């Protein structure tokens, strides 16, 4: 498999990244996962712009424009023969031989690479029958509105879900004995109660690209949607629950821990159909 590393296409044997790269030593970097379908790249500009904004926020140099990276991504996808796949972008603050917490001098180049991988396997039945979620405490920091490579709490949450027969973790935070839902290890959540939709507001959670598309779909379908703090208890007593992400698209949920839901619910199905229409319009 080829990768794109700092402006060049490189084969596996030629991927020379120094062990002192700040991505490895400090998780000092950002990433994106973008879906490809029949070699076309979905919502590239949205993903690139999210990375660009965070790079500016954290003062990490992203020395390429969207057009340049998009062309390189197309070339990489072609080289690797990827049709249905995942394009992975990573930007780190570059190599720092002294492993100093302070930022390296301005002229130190950052590291940017891309991988084009085949799509991970997801059972097609999941989209029809729904998936199981496991609740898990959100152990993360306060930078969750950025897609940082600092992912250990997400890894723990998702791994806990998988090991207990689940598809995703439903993470929650707790304040004064009140538990509220944040997001998944790599997904955003929606719930339906009495015909009205609710989703956790963007308050230290990732502004998902799929979440944004789905929000527009919900408004377009004429449903009421509240973006607010949503209690875990509310999720457990919802009529319908679904998750959204680049890879999972719109995925119904049939259970959270031992609580069961009708899946897919009527509104979930409508949102799912509308999203699939946009998704397949890329073909
Ligand atoms: N929340 C987290 C923590 C994520 O890592 C992801 C994606 O990986 C999402 C939500 C969904 O975001 P997107 O729709 O942009 O894939």
TrEMBL record:
<dbReference type="GO" id="GO:0008483">
    <property type="term" value="F:transaminase activity"/>
</dbReference>
<keyword id="KW-0808">Transferase</keyword>
<dbReference type="GO" id="GO:0008652">
    <property type="term" value="P:amino acid biosynthetic process"/>
</dbReference>
<dbReference type="GO" id="GO:0046394">
    <property type="term" value="P:carboxylic acid biosynthetic process"/>
</dbReference>
<dbReference type="InterPro" id="IPR001544">
    <property type="entry name" value="Aminotrans_IV"/>
</dbReference>
<comment type="similarity">
    <text>Belongs to the class-IV pyridoxal-phosphate-dependent aminotransferase family.</text>
</comment>
<dbReference type="InterPro" id="IPR050571">
    <property type="entry name" value="Class-IV_PLP-Dep_Aminotrnsfr"/>
</dbReference>
<dbReference type="InterPro" id="IPR036038">
    <property type="entry name" value="Aminotransferase-like"/>
</dbReference>
<keyword id="KW-0663">Pyridoxal phosphate</keyword>
<dbReference type="GO" id="GO:0005829">
    <property type="term" value="C:cytosol"/>
</dbReference>
<dbReference type="Pfam" id="PF01063">
    <property type="entry name" value="Aminotran_4"/>
</dbReference>
<dbReference type="InterPro" id="IPR043132">
    <property type="entry name" value="BCAT-like_C"/>
</dbReference>
<dbReference type="InterPro" id="IPR043131">
    <property type="entry name" value="BCAT-like_N"/>
</dbReference>
<keyword id="KW-0032">Aminotransferase</keyword>
<protein>
    <submittedName>
        <fullName>Aminotransferase class IV</fullName>
    </submittedName>
</protein>
């Amino acid at each position: 498999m080829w990768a794109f590393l700092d402006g060049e296409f490189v084969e596996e044997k030629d991927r020379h990244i120094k062990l002192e790269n700040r991505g490895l030593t400090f998780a000092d970097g950002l990433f994106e996962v973008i879906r490809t379908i029949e070699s076309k790249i979905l919502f590239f500009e949205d993903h690139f712009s999210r990375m660009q904004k965070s790079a500016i926020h954290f003062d990490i140099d992203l020395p390429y424009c969207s057009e340049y990276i998009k062309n390189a991504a197309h070339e990489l996808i072609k080289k690797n023969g990827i049709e249905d796949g995942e394009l992975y972008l990573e930007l780190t603050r570059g190599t720092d031989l002294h492993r100093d917490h302070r930022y390296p001098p301005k002229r130190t180049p950052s590291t940017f690479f891309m991988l084009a991988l085949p799509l991970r396997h997801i059972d097609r039945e999941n989209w029809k029958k729904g998936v199981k979620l496991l609740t898990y405490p959100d152990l993360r920091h306060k930078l969750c509105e950025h897609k940082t490579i600092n992912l250990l709490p997400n890894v723990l949450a998702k791994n806990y879900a998988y090991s207990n027969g689940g598809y995703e973790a439903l993470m929650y935070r707790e304040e004064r004995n009140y538990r509220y839902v944040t997001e998944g290890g790599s997904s955003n959540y929606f719930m339906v109660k009495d015909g009205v939709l609710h989703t956790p507001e963007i308050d230290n959670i990732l502004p998902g690209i799929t979440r944004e598309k789905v929000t527009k779909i919900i408004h377009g379908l004429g449903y009421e949607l509240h973006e607010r703090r949503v209690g875990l208890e509310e999720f457990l007593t919802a009529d319908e629950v679904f998750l959204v992400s680049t890879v999972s698209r719109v995925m119904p949920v049939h259970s959270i821990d031992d609580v069961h839901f009708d899946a897919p619910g009527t509104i979930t199905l409508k949102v799912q159909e509308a999203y699939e229409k946009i998704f397949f319009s890329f073909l």
